[in-house]
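Budget justification aside, the reviewers requested a transparent look at the raw inputs and outputs of the sequence design task funded under Objective 1. We therefore reproduce one unedited record. The lines immediately below are the structure tokens for a 319-residue chain.
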């Protein structure tokens, strides 16, 4: 069974047509499917349009959130209510083409855990496309997962990869990364991209910067969550080293050159000493938090893929 999950926020001009195009693709399916529309607090009547569709076809499910929580939360709501073993998120604005779904599924069945869409020929305006290229390059470098297009919504996942994942903030763009960091195999295929059919984009250019910041947070979380002191400690050591260096220079000036001026070097020395101390203390604090977190029974710093003859208890996982 395939679950197609479509979060929408004020997309009244798109839903009807999207449904019709989806039907064309889904009618040619030889397996079960469900389409889950998630209304992320729309105020333009999108919900009513979707509701009419859902009432006329019971393969179409609809969830309405109480307010606008953002695309990630909407997606999560949809995934939690879905039952298919393959999960395919999709935008509601017709920028993704339903006819690509078959190809994604086919590729996934070749044995991948995630197949990501690559909008090779993007229809999003020059500045945005350029910024997003830079962001993709940075994200690939930082994360170690080389994709041309991390931001594309249209992807195919196996349900098992979502077990234990918590989606919060604006993390939906990084689901493949989170899954990848858990040891999954990921590939991409070229998909078609269209201009938005109707309505406006819900994001502005600031998003690219947020994405890169999020990326750094999640990289930290994934690599150093259980050992935060490696990061803070490294900064602490660096500041400590600079503090000793500046101390030597200051001492040399005072003791050998007999110069008693308060040069900037003195301030730097004080600055680095304090910074170094603070970094070490913050590192210890972070370590304490980690211990408190993982000490509670059900949180484990690892995830098991499979076991043989070992009783598998249900894992609630973290990160
Ligand atoms: N969306 C949502 N909640 C939000 C913002 C966006 O459900 O708070 C939906 C939106 O309706 C669309 C998809 O997420 O179906 C992608 O949004 P958009 O097309 O504005 O993003 P872009 O294509 O410009 O990156
Ligand atoms: Mg869009």
């Amino acid at each position: 069974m395939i679950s197609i999950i479509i979060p929408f926020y004020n997309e009244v001009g798109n839903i009807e047509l999207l449904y019709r195009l989806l039907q064309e693709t889904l009618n040619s399916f030889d397996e079960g499917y469900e389409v889950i529309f998630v209304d992320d607090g729309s105020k333009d009547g999108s919900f009513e349009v979707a509701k009419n569709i859902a009432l006329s076809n019971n393969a179409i499910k609809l969830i309405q959130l109480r307010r606008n929580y953002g695309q990630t939360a909407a997606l999560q709501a949809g995934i939690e209510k879905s039952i298919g073993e393959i999960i395919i998120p999709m935008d509601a604005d017709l920028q993704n083409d339903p006819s690509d779904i078959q190809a994604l599924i086919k590729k996934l069945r070749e044995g991948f855990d995630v197949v990501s869409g690559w909008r090779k020929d993007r229809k999003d305006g020059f500045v945005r496309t350029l910024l997003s290229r830079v962001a993709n390059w940075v994200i690939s470098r930082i994360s170690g997962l080389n994709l041309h297009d991390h931001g594309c919504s249209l992807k195919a996942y196996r349900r098992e990869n979502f077990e234990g994942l918590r989606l919060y903030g604006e993390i939906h763009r990084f689901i493949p990364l989170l899954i990848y960091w858990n040891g999954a195999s990921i590939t991409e295929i070229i998909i078609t991209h269209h201009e938005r059919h109707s309505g406006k984009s819900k994001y502005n250019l600031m998003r690219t910067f947020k994405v890169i910041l999020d990326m750094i947070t999640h990289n930290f979380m994934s690599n150093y969550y259980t050992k935060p002191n490696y990061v803070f400690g490294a900064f602490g050591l660096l500041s400590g080293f600079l503090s000793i260096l500046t101390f030597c220079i200051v001492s040399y000036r005072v003791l050998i050159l007999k110069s008693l001026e308060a040069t900037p070097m003195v301030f730097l020395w004080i600055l680095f000493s304090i910074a170094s101390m603070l970094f070490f203390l913050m590192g210890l604090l972070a370590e304490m938090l980690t211990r408190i977190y993982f000490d509670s029974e059900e949180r484990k710093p690892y995830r098991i893929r499979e076991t043989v003859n070992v009783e598998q208890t249900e894992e609630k996982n973290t990160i």
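Strands lie at 2-8, 33-39, 60-64, 86-89, 114-118, 155-158, 186-190. The pocket of uridine-5'-diphosphate (ligand 1) is lined by residues 7-9, 11, 40, 68, 70-71, 74, 91-93, 95, 201-203 (CB under 6 Å). Computational costs for records of this kind are itemized in the attached budget.
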